[in-house]
Amino acid sequence: MARMKVVGGELRVKFSAWERLAVWRDEVVVPVSAIRAVERVESAVGRARGGRAGVLISGVLKVGFWGLGTGVRQLVSVRRGVPALRVELDRASSGLHFDELLISTRDAAEVAEALANPAYR
User: Fold this and answer.
1) Where are the beta strands (DSSP E) in 15-98?
2) CB 19 within 8 A of CB 105
3) pTM to 2 decimals?
4) N or C: which terminus of the chain carries fewer CB neighbours within 10 A?
5) CA-to-CA distance for 67 and 73, rounded, in angstroms?
6) How far apart are CA 8 and CA 88, in angstroms?
7) How many CB atoms lie within 10 A of CB 114?
């Protein structure tokens, strides 16, 4: 499962060995200044929509890129029963090729709280 943490003004998402095969990277680093919005999502599997390049186990797991052809590209790593964060990005200032992160993490509340802290803005 991916791990998220806020360190030194950056949101860092570290992927497990098998997730790396679907997301084509081991880590994503986003400047906190490039984050537009953060939302805690309890049932995240259904929030990834559109075309995909990645792994799908219907109703259980989604890992990869979603939203192909919809205009909103998502980097997704979600599991049933694990809360997630939906992080909306400013693509231009993030330097990434997607508009949202949708990541399941057991400490979603703590990461959301850290991102809301004005000290990181």
Assistant:
1) 27-31, 35-41, 51-57, 61-68, 74-79, 84-89
2) no
3) 0.92
4) C
5) 5
6) 19
7) 18
